[in-house]
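quick q for whoever's on today - can somebody do inverse folding on this one?? i tried earlier but teh output was garbage lol. tokens:
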């Protein structure tokens, strides 16, 4: 007995798209799926390109969510901000999982196309730099790799003039009635943030009585959750690079693994980590 093939049209599925928006149209798949252009005949160069392109797409979403979370905090819409910050943490979980795919590439595989990269390097990712600037890790020296693109440099410079996510969080902490040093609230936000004992004391008040300061407690934990995944992403970056190229210099001229290991010591929200020892 021959079974009649299933036809989705019989249940109302749209099957014709001449002159109508399709899935591929909406997602601009023609542009996305033709953006992979290996410069060598090495099989694994396609993996390398897609790994980094998809990472940039996730970073695009992370920036969208971080910006919205910051705006929500500025307006006192705490619950909306918490949802967005939780999403950013999950985005970085996805970015972490991607390293597992890249680690299937061996040193021999990478060597076949490494020269084709020229001086290009993940070190030059302006979206990654913008994420760091937005959440509070601000180093004006890192504007220089982007000086050749005035549009991107302008985006980064504009970010340095805005209060970071952590600056805004500290202002919300102060607005909740917990004393935050005025010098911290009035600081030059374009400069790198330095851990402050008064800020640590303020967050400690929250953690010693979370039921009374629940929204600020939840804010603190959302920030820690994000940084936890962010740190794991950096660590996985280090181990992946060491596994693939050892201690060679990076294509962009950095010290490679040694440079990445230095980045592991950077803390985005230092007081939220340090106070745990004293609770």
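ok took a stab at it. sequence:
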């Amino acid at each position: 007995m021959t079974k009649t093939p299933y036809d989705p049209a019989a249940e109302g599925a749209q099957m014709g798209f001449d002159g109508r928006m399709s899935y591929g149209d909406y997602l601009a798949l023609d542009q996305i799926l033709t953006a992979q252009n290996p410069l060598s005949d090495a099989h694994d160069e396609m993996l390398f390109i897609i790994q980094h392109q998809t990472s940039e797409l996730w970073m695009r979403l992370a920036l969208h969510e971080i910006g919205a979370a910051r705006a929500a905090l500025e307006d006192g819409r705490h619950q909306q901000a918490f949802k967005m910050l939780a999403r950013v943490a999950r985005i970085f979980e996805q970015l972490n999982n991607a390293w597992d795919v890249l680690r299937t590439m061996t040193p021999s595989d990478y060597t076949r196309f490494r020269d084709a990269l020229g001086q290009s390097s993940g070190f030059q990712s302006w979206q990654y730099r913008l994420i760091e600037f937005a959440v509070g890790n601000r180093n004006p020296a890192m504007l220089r790799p982007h000086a050749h693109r005035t549009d991107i440099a302008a985006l980064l410079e504009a970010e340095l003039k805005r209060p970071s996510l952590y600056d805004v969080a500290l202002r919300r902490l102060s607005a909740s009635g917990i004393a935050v040093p005025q010098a911290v609230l009035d600081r030059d936000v374009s400069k790198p943030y330095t851990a402050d004992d008064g800020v640590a004391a303020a967050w400690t008040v929250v953690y010693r009585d979370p039921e009374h300061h629940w929204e600020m407690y939840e804010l603190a934990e959302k920030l820690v959750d994000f940084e936890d995944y962010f740190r794991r992403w950096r660590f996985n970056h280090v181990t992946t690079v060491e596994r693939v190229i050892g201690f060679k210099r990076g294509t962009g001229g950095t010290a490679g693994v040694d440079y990445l290991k230095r980045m592991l010591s950077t803390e985005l929200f230092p007081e939220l980590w340090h106070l745990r020892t004293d609770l």
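fwiw The two ends are 73 Å apart (CA to CA). also The chain has 13 helices and no strands. so keep that in mind when u check it
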